[in-house]
Design goal:
Bound molecules: adenosine-5'-triphosphate, magnesium ion
Strand order of the largest sheet: 1-11-10-4-9-8-7
GO molecular function: ATP binding; ATP hydrolysis activity
Protein name: NitT/TauT family transport system ATP-binding protein
Distance between the termini: 24 Å
Helix content: 25-40%
CATH class of the largest domain: Alpha Beta
Largest sheet: 7 strands, mixed
Keywords: ATP-binding, Nucleotide-binding, Transport
CATH architecture of the largest domain: 3-Layer(aba) Sandwich
Order of helices and strands: EHEEEHEEEHHHEHEHEEH
Family: Belongs to the ABC transporter superfamily.
InterPro entries: AAA+_ATPase, ABC_transporter-like_ATP-bd, ABC_transporter-like_CS, ABC_transporter_ATP-bind, P-loop_NTPase
Strand content: 15-25%
Length: about 270
């Protein structure tokens, strides 16, 4: 039932034309005062195809956020190669949008000003950009909230505004680091459906970090399972469930097999 690929053997496969991200032997060692360093990622190799939905699961401290920060261009790596569209990732790029665990909205700006903030920094707020922001806010159910301030919105609404801020720039790649960790279970389910809808409409590539096995299976084409620190790719699990995904699929046998398998892999790698 579960098609497996070994990421370490995959490295021998030449890149195919639809590969968006390619990571080869990616290693990150954080410098420490005692000079020994913290090895957060060790020899991580994978490809992500254009338009794929990938989730990353692994126990706390295994390097998930480190990997996302390197992909976003916010953090240097120590060894190996990582490319987007064949070009090395070596700094923040408007083609890459990032959504963090907390929405990180600026409290003194309205919702509209917040979602336009990256464009303001780049001095490219055009009427088309404003229109896009407005239509995206409407898409995620925030029509009419553009002039409100973050504190006037619930946690889920703020997180949706954070997603809009990342999407306004129309990035090719959307990186999401535990974006729904702080939300209650029902809001989280709604947000999962929302993300899938946006992904299906826009055909972006999404890399999504989560601690929830169910969330990873529900959303993804493939789930990357990482080992504890130093983070390596333990397995890549292909999720062969039909799309569009619906919440009732969570109760199906196939869904249960996938989540059971991923749980087993994580247990084999230590506590989750
Ligand atoms: N700036 C830093 N300096 C030194 N070590 C760091 C730094 N940032 C992260 N680390 C270490 O690197 C390892 C990986 O951290 P990272 O934040 O990537 O983990 P994570 O998988 O995102 O964990 P969590 O699930 O708790 O968010 C951890 O051991 C952490 O202590
Ligand atoms: Mg993290």
């Amino acid at each position: 039932m579960t098609a497996m690929t070994n990421p370490q053997t995959d490295t021998a496969t030449p890149a195919t034309p639809d590969v968006l991200i390619s990571s080869r032997h990616l290693t990150k060692i954080y410098p420490t005062r005692d000079g020994r360093g913290v090895r957060a990622l060790d020899d991580v190799s994978f490809d992500v195809r254009d338009g794929e939905f990938i989730s990353i699961v692994g126990r706390s401290g295994c390097g998930k956020s480190t990997l996302l920060k390197i992909l976003s261009g916010l953090l240097d790596h120590t060894r190996g190669d990582i490319t987007l569209n064949g070009r090395p990732i070596d700094g923040p790029d408007p083609d890459i949008g990032v959504v963090f665990q907390s929405p990180t909205l600026l409290p003194w700006l309205t919702i509209t000003q917040n979602v336009l903030f990256p464009n303001k920094i780049r001095r490219n707020i055009t009427p088309a950009v404003r229109e896009r922001a407005q239509s995206l806010l409407a898409t995620v159910g925030l029509d009419g909230f553009g002039d409100r301030y973050p504190k006037e919105l619930s946690g889920g609404m703020q997180q949706r505004a954070g997603i809009v801020r990342a999407l306004v720039q129309d990035p090719e790649l959307l990186l999401m680091d535990e974006p729904f960790g702080a939300l209650d279970a029902m809001t989280r389910e709604q947000m999962n459906l929302e993300v899938l809808r946006i992904w299906e409409e826009s055909r972006k590539t999404i890399i999504f970090v989560t601690h929830s096995i169910v969330e990873s299976v529900f959303l993804s084409d493939r789930v990357f399972v990482m080992t504890p620190r130093p983070g390596r790719l333990a397995e890549v699990v292909d999720i062969d469930l039909p799309r569009p995904r619906t919440l009732d699929m969570i109760n199906s046998d196939a869904f249960g097999s996938y989540s059971g398998w991923i749980r087993k892999l994580l247990e084999a790698e230590g506590d989750f």
